[in-house]
Fold:
Amino acid sequence: MRKVFKIIIYVVVGLVVIGALGAFAAQMLSDRKRQRTIDIKLEPLAYVSDDASLARGKHLFMSRGCAECHGENGGGHIVIDQGGMYIKSPNITNGSGSVVAKYTEADWVRTIRHGVNPAGHPMILMPSGDYNQLTDVDLAAVIAYARSLPPVAGEGATIRLPLIVKALYAAGKIRDDADTIDHTRRPPLPVPDEVTPENGAYLANMCTGCHGRTFSGGPIPGTPPEWPPAANLTPGEGSAMTRYDAPAKFVAMIRTGKRPDSSEVSAVMPFPSLRNLNDTELGALYAYLKTLPPRAGGNH
Structure:
């Protein structure tokens, strides 16, 4: 019995040591990956500050997720605190603790469009994939509005990730946007602000971070385990769009957060941002989603 007891102790100790070594390796490899240098050939955008650009920039800031992550005042706040994951966004005003106080024109483009910080390292949770295909006009407008925000006190980002997320990131199962973006792809030319599939396709770029490039949904990589999978927005198997056989139903869901049967859509959906889309934009987005080829849900 004593011999068996010793064996059990050895096994337990061995498992603890293996676990500790695994945790150390995951931490080390994750940190190393986050510190890699990404060289990007940039074309800086000249700063703009005219009234039309600031108005457009404010609309984009409020409707494309900038305010939802950084706060309407740009000072940063807690974005996620669940499942062992804690994300606090940084201060992007020029107040004390700002992370953008020394940004150049190129730094703004590198950060927003490419997900790379001024030092050339990937920004692990900056959803630049959603913004990579902003037109130059819209990107310049967003930058103009962000730079116009009154200074408030804040600090840099705080990121605490569960060990499993670090391990999956280190193994390449979860990828940062800097790794998935085609940094050589040219931004599109502006499209008319009309209810057309072409305008909707432009707007739908902001949905790809959750719903995937094919819009077929599935588990959202790197998110807390409590988060549900993203819905399939194509007309394929498991489609969520079958509920919305008319544009008005789709618009009502975005405005209220409720499906036509009055059930609540998951709060994971960025409704605080989406509600700021105007009727033309929502009509265009619906028109585009109706053109998607069918794909089975979960293929992301």
Remarks:
- Strands lie at 78-82, 85-88, 158-160.
